Amino acid sequence: MTKDITVAQDGHVATVTFHRPPNNHVSVDLMRDLADTLEALDADGVTRAVVLASEGKPFCAGADLVSSDGIGGTGMGGIAPLYDQAVRLFSIETPIVAAIQGAAVGAGLGLALVADFRVAAPEARFSANFVKLGFHPGFGLTHTLPRLIGQQRANLMFLTGRRVKAEDGLAWGLVDEVVPLDQLLS
What we know:
- This protein has a 6-stranded mixed sheet with strand order 1-2-3-4-6-9, with helices on one face. It has a 3-stranded mixed sheet with strand order 5-7-8.
- It has 7 helices and 9 strands; from the N terminus they run ββαβαββαββαααβαβ.
- The chain has a single domain, classed as 2-enoyl-CoA Hydratase, Chain A, domain 1 (Alpha-Beta Complex).
- The chain has helices at residues 28-43, 79-90, 107-114, 130-133, 141-149, 151-160, 166-172, and strands at residues 5-10, 13-18, 49-54, 96-100, 103-105, 117-120, 125-127, 163-165, 177-178.
- The chain has 186 residues and is of the alpha/beta class.
- The radius of gyration is 15 Å and the shape is globular.
C-alpha cells in the first residue's frame, strides 16, 4: 500500500483502489506504485483475481498535465516514463476486473483497458480525448482499443474525442457488464 493505493484482500480476490482526489489523474509515481502493487499480487501465491477501482466521482480523468508533480510538470519528457509503467501494467498475469464508476478519459481509458474485464456503472463515460489536446492517443490505446471495439469505432473515438456512455460501451464491447453504482464492487 502507498498513500495513493490501498489493497483489501478477501480470500483469493484483492481489491486495489487508487485515490488521487479530486480527479484521480495519472502520474508516473501513481502508475509505478500501481504496477509495483499488481506485480506483488501476481507473485504472492494467494491472489487469483484483482478488482481495480478508484475512489471519487471519476474513475480516472487522464494524465495530470498541469501540476508540477504530474506529467505536465516534466514536459513531454514525462511521457516515456509513463509508458514504461504502462508496459508493466499490461504485463500483469493475474486477471484484472476494472470497476468503473465514472469518467475514464485519455490515460484513464488506457488504464481501464489494462483490465481483462470492465464492469461499469451507468454513470461511467469513456473518452480518448487526445485529439482535443493536440497529440497522439497514448497508453497503448491505438493497439488495445481497436482490438476491443473495432477499428472504425476506435477511429470515431480517437478522431472526434467523443464520449461513450456505459450502455453504448456495452454494445460496442468496451464494457463487459453495466451494473447499478451501488453494486459495482460486488
